[in-house]
Amino acid sequence: DAMVIQNPRYQVTQFGKPVTLSCSQTLNHNVMYWYQQKSSQAPKLLFHYYDKDFNNEADTPDNFQSRRPNTSFCFLDIRSPGLGDAAMYLCATSRPGLGQETQYFGPGTRLLVL
Amino acid sequence: KQEVTQIPAALSVPEGENLVLNCSFTDSAIYNLQWFRQDPGKGLTSLLLIQSSQREQTSGRLNASLDKSSGRSTLYIAASQPGDSATYLCAVRMDSSYKLIFGSGTRLLVRP
């Protein structure tokens, strides 16, 4: 009954080697979010899509990009991962304004940069 | 700029104890507040959502209250169990955005 699915659960990449993380949802929610969470810290929003509209946070590095080809899928691309990008990446969805204010999170992808 | 603070950062209690986790925020213009649970190495599970017009929400042994004017929320856990051990995060959504602003969490350990 997984509702927000993230793949892979663990990703190891090399310094500077592009990596893509994926998120899919079965909730038909129109808003999808990507958060970065470093060890023992609060999740930090990188960007979100409201339908097809992309909303970038002001302090999200240019190194992070996102794509949403359809309602169900959203991708996080890290163009040149640095050691400081090692973190848990969390995808979430919601449908605000229609009684679905709660954000539902996936299990996360833990990224390790060597 | 909204800031969310959770105190204490860590808490250890014996099984069966009732406990309260605290969350405070600096800007009272919130749309709603959510409490989440996070197990080690896992994603977040939503526990309770309180709209800005509400004072409290209950789910099972959990009760969350909201005092918007004073910028505070509490999560009350009754009759704590070892399975409640996790990190508890509160997050606020502002009127002007869909974005959630998180506190750093309270790490709870319930000892058998």
Question: What do you see in this structure?
Answer:
The complex is a heterodimer of chains A (114) and B (112). In chain A, a hairpin with a 5-residue loop joins strand 7 and strand 8 (73-78). Helices cover 0% and strands 55% of the residues of chain A. In chain A, the strands form 2 sheets. In chain A, strands 2, 4, 5, 6, 9, 10 and 11 form a 7-stranded mixed sheet that branches. In chain A, strands 1-3-8-7 form a 4-stranded antiparallel sheet, with no helix packed on it. Chain A has 114 residues and is mainly beta. Chain A has no helices and 11 strands. Chain B has no helices and 11 strands. The model of chain B has no long low-confidence stretch (mean pLDDT 94). The A-B interface holds A 4, 6, 31, 33, 40-45, 48, 50, 57, 88, 90, 92, 94, 96, 101-108, 110 and B 4, 32, 34, 36, 41-46, 49, 51, 89, 93, 98-100, 102-105.
Brief summary:
The complex is a heterodimer of chains A (114) and B (112). Chain A is built from no helices and eleven strands.
